[in-house]
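Hi V.,

Quick status before I head out on leave. The structure for the redesign project is tokenized and pasted below; the design run finished overnight.
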């Protein structure tokens, strides 16, 4: 195959501190000012005081993010395995030829769907869009999904069903400041989104009340005016119990329910089964606390419920989110000023990443791959026949579960499935059974340890593009740092591979902006309509909230004020019942095990575990255990303990803390290998979103020795 010159992406000259860009990590996408090599003790990163989301604040991950740019472990040349299974450097042409030849052979022998693609919520909108196009056109496979399935899919599914549209926060984060009551459910923002705490601080300083529901008294829970330490997996019962109180005390907004919603009668009938005494048995929340929370939410002029992964990462995650939405619709709060329901997106571009076609059932703009009109719209933009587009593929866990069986190759772009997926003891051998595993990233990670090919790519500050933050605000990521010679953009890699697969002409883009312009075209008239967003408008307005339907349209910071996105303009209630988790504690496995995050680490830890300041602050995962349970097992802080589920046994160092329930253990999931918390979690999936149940496994504990 002949060499194809790389795409000349837009490259701005690196400048002194002062280039406005955004943090590489989470969906808060803090505004940053960056410059190159200022020398001395000066940081190369500072918070952007004029970015109205973080107002100059960064967390420790943001402050240390520039350490990744000149990190000694950076991979600068493509790598292939030699005959002994060791990595050897290769030229780009050799590596790309090797990948393409293998993909073609697998397609020839096993069919197009035997090539799988696994994307990421960390990719820019342009990359997410092009990766979906690459899978459907160049590979012709239905099997593309991404790690956002593990993160956001339950909230997304419930919002799409209830409101007709999913945007994590349907209002700017600054609205929090003026809400009289905010309820955070399963969200530890003090650790996961530290700069967001300024908005809760202001809200409380204004006389507002903060309610937090979580099985752990987290740093966020400690700040709450009312803390509800519920049993893991009972969020749905708690929300139904709150609705019971609201109905019983005649606090529903009957006018709003009649004018703006459908389906309340069925929900009312179900909610009335959730008497506070029953809810207390299920959740552990006392009736007095339940009534207090319900009255605060109902009688406040403005109130919002914000959910996180604690509610969503369950085999009943979609129904749990529905229960919270039902409550806020019954209170008539959704679409009102400084009020409503929202979910706190986790990954850097978790919002944009789920809108532009790297999900097995979706096409760009939140179009659905099984809807003929949506297929026709995208086929027209891509210049192909609608019938040539693959149908819906396997969801993330199911895709990984089929590796080595119906799926023979996997192209992993910006994800680390060997840490972030559940039930790793089951999935890791499947990675090893692949005929071809290609990892595209800046650093080796736990997944590339099993790969046949490693393709080194540019990092966040080395190329431009757009991200969509947790508010649905489309923002610009800018070039700040000159990349080393060797790594290429993912956009270039996709073009090069597509050319070798016989489809290169569909992937010729002169600049990143030209990819965005095709994305705009592909989303015109779609639910997530970006067609009116331009790079210039993003500059002028400090970001543009979608939907934005024309160049005259300033965008939509607040949604649902007048109508919802169903054809009749009304929101839908869904009657949902509490049900057991995929597995509940029993005599053999008597404890709940739940997972979460440290403020020093991001997701699978592939980036943050190699940053010295972060890894020295949190070098290993610790198992949180209540003093009562610890005494029973003669465990003290620092003891080595094993935690065992039906799937695996993992050794941790114990941290005894009264902040956790006596029936629950907690460990972070940022580590791989033998310390991987996800060895313990199960492959139970939500039936609608196909999101795994990361937040609940039944386990037992033993002291080592
Ligand atoms: Fe902000 Fe998130 Fe980056 Fe921390 S990790 S600086 S909260 S964007």
């Amino acid at each position: 195959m002949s060499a194809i010159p790389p795409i000349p992406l837009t490259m701005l000259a690196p400048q002194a501190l002062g280039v406005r860009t955004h943090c590489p990590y989470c969906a808060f996408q803090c505004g940053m000012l960056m410059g190159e090599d200022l020398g001395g003790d000066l940081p190369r990163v500072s918070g952007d005081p004029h970015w109205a989301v973080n107002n100059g604040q960064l967390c420790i991950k943001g402050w240390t993010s520039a350490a990744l740019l000149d990190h000694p472990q950076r991979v600068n040349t493509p790598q292939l395995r030699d005959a002994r299974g060791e990595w050897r450097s290769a030229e780009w042409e050799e590596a790309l030829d090797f990948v393409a030849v293998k993909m073609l052979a697998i397609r020839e022998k096993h069919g197009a769907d035997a090539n799988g693609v696994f994307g990421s919520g960390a990719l820019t909108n342009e990359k997410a869009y092009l990766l979906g196009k690459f899978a459907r056109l160049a590979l012709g496979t239905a099997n593309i999904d991404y790690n956002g399935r593990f993160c956001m899919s339950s909230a997304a599914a419930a919002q799409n069903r209830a409101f007709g549209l999913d945007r994590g926060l349907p209002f700017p984060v600054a609205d929090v400041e003026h809400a009289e009551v905010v309820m955070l459910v399963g969200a530890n923002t003090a650790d996961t989104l530290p700069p967001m705490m300024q908005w809760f601080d202001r809200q409380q300083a204004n006389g507002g009340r903060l309610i937090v529901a979580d099985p752990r008294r987290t740093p966020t829970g400690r700040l709450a005016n009312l803390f509800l330490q519920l049993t893991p997996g009972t969020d749905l019962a708690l929300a139904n119990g709150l609705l019971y109180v609201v109905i019983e005390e005649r606090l529903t907004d009957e006018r709003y329910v009649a004018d703006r919603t459908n389906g309340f009668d069925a929900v009312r009938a179900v909610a009335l089964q959730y008497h506070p005494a029953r809810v207390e048995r299920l959740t552990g929340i006392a009736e007095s606390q339940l009534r207090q929370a319900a009255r605060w939410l109902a009688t406040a002029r403005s109130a919002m419920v914000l959910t996180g992964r604690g509610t969503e990462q369950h085999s009943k995650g979609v129904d749990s989110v529905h229960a919270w939405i039902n409550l806020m619709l019954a209170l008539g709060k959704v679409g009102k000023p400084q009020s409503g329901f929202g979910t706190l997106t986790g990954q850097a571009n978790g919002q944009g990443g789920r809108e532009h076609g790297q999900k097995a059932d979706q096409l760009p703009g939140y179009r659905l791959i099984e809807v003929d009109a949506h297929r026709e719209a995208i086929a027209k933009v891509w210049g192909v026949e609608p019938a040539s587009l693959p149908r819906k593929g396997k969801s993330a866990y199911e895709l990984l579960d089929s590796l080595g069986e119906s799926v023979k190759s996997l192209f992993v772009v910006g994800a680390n499935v060997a840490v972030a997926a559940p039930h790793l003891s089951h999935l890791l051998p499947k990675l090893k059974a692949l005929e071809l595993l290609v990892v595209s990233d800046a650093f080796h990670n736990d997944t590339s340890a099993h790969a046949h090919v490693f393709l080194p790519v540019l990092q966040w500050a080395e190329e431009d593009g757009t991200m969509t933050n947790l508010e649905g605000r489309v923002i610009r990521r800018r070039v700040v740092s000159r990349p080393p010679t060797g790594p290429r953009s993912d956009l270039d890699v996709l073009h090069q591979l597509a050319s070798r697969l016989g489809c290169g002409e569909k992937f010729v883009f002169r600049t990143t902006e030209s990819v965005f312009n095709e994305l705009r075209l592909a989303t015109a008239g779609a639910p997530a309509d970006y067609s009116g967003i331009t790079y210039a408008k993003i500059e002028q307005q400090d970001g543009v909230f979608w939907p934005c339907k024309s160049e005259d349209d300033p965008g939509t910071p607040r949604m649902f004020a007048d109508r919802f996105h169903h054809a009749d303009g009304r929101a839908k209630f869904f009657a949902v019942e509490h049900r057991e988790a995929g597995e509940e504690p029993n005599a053999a496995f008597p404890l709940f095990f739940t997972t979460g995050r440290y403020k020093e680490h991001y997701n699978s830890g592939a980036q943050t575990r190699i940053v010295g300041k972060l890894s020295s602050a949190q070098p290993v995962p610790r198992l949180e255990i209540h003093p009562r349970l610890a005494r029973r097992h003669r465990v003290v802080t620092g003891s080595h303990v094993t935690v065992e589920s039906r799937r695996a046994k993992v050794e941790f160092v114990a941290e005894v803390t009264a902040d956790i329930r006596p029936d629950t253990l907690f460990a972070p999931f940022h580590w791989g290998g033998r310390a991987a918390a996800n060895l313990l979690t199960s492959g139970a999936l939500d039936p609608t979103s196909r999101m795994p149940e990361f937040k609940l496994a039944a386990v037992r504990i033993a002291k080592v020795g």
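Above is the designed sequence. Residues 219 and 561 are 33 Å apart (CA to CA).

G. will cover questions while I'm gone.

Best,
W.
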